[in-house]
Automatic annotation (TrEMBL), chain A:
Source organism superkingdom: Bacteria
Predominant cellular place of this UniProt entry's protein: membrane
Subunit-structure text: NDH-1 is composed of 14 different subunits. Subunits NuoA, H, J, K, L, M, N constitute the membrane sector of the complex.
UniProt lineage: Bacteria, Bacillati, Actinomycetota, Actinomycetes, Propionibacteriales
Protein name, per record: NADH-quinone oxidoreductase subunit K
Location within or outside the cell: Cell membrane; Membrane
Cited function: NDH-1 shuttles electrons from NADH, via FMN and iron-sulfur (Fe-S) centers, to quinones in the respiratory chain. The immediate electron acceptor for the enzyme in this species is believed to be a menaquinone. Couples the redox reaction to proton translocation (for every two electrons transferred, four hydrogen ions are translocated across the cytoplasmic membrane), and thus conserves the redox energy in a proton gradient.
Transmembrane segments: 6-24, 31-51, 63-85
Annotated keywords: Cell membrane, Membrane, NAD, Oxidoreductase, Quinone, Translocase, Transmembrane, Transmembrane helix, Transport
Matches recorded under NCBIfam families: PRK05715.1-2, PRK05715.1-3
Biological process annotations from GO: ATP synthesis coupled electron transport
Origin species: Nocardioides turkmenicus
Enzyme Commission numbers on file: 7.1.1.-
Gene assigned in the entry: nuoK
GO-annotated molecular function: NADH dehydrogenase (quinone) (non-electrogenic) activity; quinone binding
Length: 101, 234
């Protein structure tokens, strides 16, 4: 199993699918954001698996950059959720339905 | 064998993230997935990513999520009523379709077996990663550092609240407190701190009044389920 790249890539695909379904079905903005993080982690797994398949470290460096970008995205995204919560007092994604406040 | 065990734990935890009703349970399931991923990175000869995954992803990003869950509301659960009819059924079916397409495509592609990183990791994984990071990927490195600075400043700008009314000085606050006491008998001193007992000692443990009842004023309002008062820092 440890030499079979396909197993890791299929695990990455399964995690990505679960994340996608979570983004589409959950109503709480924070849980939607966590599912986006799950999708990013699945992509990271595929990158590291392919890095080992090719025998060089480019995939691992790319996975490292994905982690950095995900960290920056979480910072700004959670700040946005906090700001929306302050004005509307709800964290549901169904509530912000009109552009005008 | 260990990969099969890890993979099953990760998929079960990911499904837990999908079906958890409280956001805190979802965050904990995500923590299980991330630590499982860290172990998979260790299996894939990526020790640096194993450490960074635990420290940065689980230790920093997930903690940020937990802080925001604490501030936004621990009790909020998803409303089951749909705003668009049939959206959940369509979403789940399309998501499962996406998964089936991905797995079918990957299964049909002939991906080579792993060559292993024994030669690429010569002299240490961290050292070889550093070689790559500061030679071939140095522009991306500088760009992501600029991105991190921008994200931090952006978060500060978003969280900043402008002061609309003038700031009350200490004299004003003291006079306000005495006026409140004269008008309604409201207690002049500070609020009571949370309870410190033999078995419970946390911010949401209420203090006990002399007659044995719990003091609702000793627990911060946001931990008891309410919002912070206007004018106070969150």
């Amino acid at each position: 199993m440890t030499d079979n790249t396909t197993a890791y890539v299929i695990l990455s695909a399964i995690l990505f699918t679960i994340g996608t379904i979570g983004v589409l079905t959950r109503r709480n903005a924070i849980v939607v954001f966590m599912c986006v993080e799950l999708m990013l982690n699945a992509a990271n797994l595929a990158l590291v698996a392919f890095s080992r398949m090719h025998g060089n470290l480019d995939g691992q460096v790319t996975a490292f950059f994905v982690m950095v970008v995900a960290a920056a995205e979480v910072v700004v995204g959670l700040a946005i959720i906090m700001t929306i919560f302050r004005t509307r007092n709800t964290a549901s994604v169904d509530e912000p339905r009109m552009l005008k406040w | 064998m260990s990969f099969v065990i890890l993979a099953s734990i990760m998929v079960i935890a990911a499904l837990g993230l999908l079906f958890a009703r409280k956001p805190v349970h979802a965050a904990l399931s995500l923590a299980v997935v991330m630590i499982g991923l860290a172990m998979v990175y260790a299996m894939l000869e990526a020790p640096f990513l194993f450490a960074v995954q635990i420290v940065v992803y689980t230790g920093a990003i997930l903690m940020l999520f937990l802080f925001v869950i604490m501030l936004v509301g621990v009790d909020t659960s998803d409303k089951l009523k749909e705003t668009i009819a049939g959206q959940k059924v369509l979403a789940v079916s399309l998501g499962v379709g996406l998964g089936a397409t991905l797995i079918a495509g990957i299964g049909q592609a002939s991906i080579a077996t792993m060559r292993g990183l024994a030669s690429a990791n010569e002299g240490g994984n961290v050292q070889r990663l550093a070689d790559l990071l500061f030679s071939r990927y140095v522009i991306a490195f500088e760009a992501t550092s600029a991105l991190l600075i921008t994200a931090a400043i952006g978060a500060m700008v978003l969280a900043h609240r402008e002061r609309i009314d003038p700031k009350q000085s200490q004299t004003d606050l003291a006079q306000q407190r005495v006026a409140d006491y004269a008008k309604s008998g409201k207690h002049l001193g500070p609020l009571p701190p949370p309870g410190t007992f033999a078995r419970h000692n946390s911010n949401d443990t209420p203090a006990l009044l002399p007659d044995g009842s719990q003091s609702t004023k000793s627990v911060p309002a946001i931990l008891a389920g309410g919002r912070t008062e206007e004018g106070e820092d969150a």
